[in-house]
Design goal:
The chain is mainly beta and 351 residues long. Helices cover 4% and strands 38% of the residues. The chain has a single domain (3-350), classed as Beta-galactosidase, Chain A, domain 5 (Distorted Sandwich).
């Protein structure tokens, strides 16, 4: 059984609105989430010897989360990842978004879902966040109602995303947690072993926009179908920030596994989405002071961002990221708990 505690984490400057922190605790895992950006601020789990550590990067206080940071633990929307030149066309009308990543738009714009205060409701084993994104917010068409539910069941964390719109609009939601299975504050992830169930990946141009090619991973540094040690791969590549192409299935399916041999911690990821953006914190530079005074240098974490393909709204995959108006709600789906010691399963479900 999971207990859920609710407490104040601080107030927003200007409005004085309260930011709440929710602590979900099972027999083996503790997850802490804010009503600001649905941010996962802590994820505590034992190693093979029973020693508990926090395995996600973040901050100790609200002030740092309100400052500029690389989306630590946040829900990203309306559209995660990059949109080329910040432009897209829906139903014959071109829309221009804010340019906030080189020549492109990234992660929902200047003030995306990660910077918004969400409504929160405590449910059995869960916290459900919701908000209404008004028509025109950050340049996107249509009023969008969004629900994000975090459910903790023993060693399984499920993140369920649901959206409803009154106009045709692109939507692509994800969570941007930064993991280090040795414990947050550890200096690199080179001793982690990763496996991603993908036959193909998307090559990118020098602005990190997919070129349009869908490339086979065979005999490349992107072939992670069998477990490989990250340090060996990244020594040759310099780091990952690429979309791996998963099965186009709406059913929940396994997509990735990361193992830290020294601690025995294992992270398994499942999703209903067709893409996994695997990112190895290439842009962290040690300038941010994290939890407990930790310094976060380059390659000190990894992200497993389950989502649609980057810039899909401008590619042949456009229909997969466009959401048409809905007049009825969508039911959520459940997922299986394993509860294995030392394991953490994260299930990302989109309905």
């Amino acid at each position: 059984m999971t207990s859920v505690q609710r407490e104040s984490f601080g107030t927003l400057p200007g409005s004085g609105e309260t930011v709440e922190r929710f602590r979900l605790h099972s027999s083996s895992v503790t997850v802490e989430v804010l009503s600001l950006g649905c941010i996962i601020t802590a994820l505590k789990t034992p190693d093979k010897a029973g020693r508990v550590a926090d395995i996600v990067l973040g901050f100790d206080n609200l002030e740092n989360y309100l400052s500029k940071h690389p989306y630590f633990g946040a829900v990203i929307g309306r559209v995660a990842n990059r949109i080329a030149k910040g432009k897209f066309t829906v139903e014959g009308k071109e829309y221009q978004l804010a340019i906030n990543n080189g020549p492109n738009s990234i992660h929902g714009g200047i003030k995306g879902f990660d910077k918004m205060l969400w409504n929160a409701e405590v449910l059995p084993n869960s916290v459900r966040f919701s908000r209404i994104s008004p028509d025109g917010e950050e340049g996107y068409p249509g009023e969008l109602k969004v629900w994000v539910t975090y459910t903790l069941d023993e060693g399984e964390l499920s993140i369920n995303y649901r959206a409803q719109t009154d106009k045709t609009t692109p939507i692509n939601l994800t969570n941007h947690s930064y993991f280090n299975l040795a414990g947050q504050g550890s200096q690199n992830i080179y001793d982690h072993e990763v496996c991603i169930a993908a036959e193909e990946y998307l090559p990118v141009d020098d602005t990190m926009i997919p070129t349009g090619e869908i490339a086979c991973v065979h005999d490349t540094l992107f072939d992670l179908r069998k477990p490989v040690k990250l340090g060996r791969q990244m020594e040759k590549l310099g780091g990952y920030d690429h979309n791996f192409c998963l099965d186009f299935s709406k059913d929940l399916h396994y997509c990735a596994r990361v193992w830290h041999p020294d601690t025995g911690r294992v992270l398994e990821v499942s999703t209903t989405q067709p893409g996994l953006q695997f990112y190895t914190a290439n842009f962290l530079d040690g300038s941010l002071k994290g939890k407990g005074g930790a310094v976060y240098p380059k390659h000190s974490a990894f992200c497993m961002e389950t989502q649609n393909w980057p810039d899909a709204v401008n590619k042949r995959e456009k229909e997969s990221v466009i959401k048409e108006p809905l007049t009825q709600s969508c039911p959520s789906r459940s997922s299986r708990s394993t509860g294995r010691p030392g394991f953490l399963d994260i299930h990302n479900e989109y309905v």
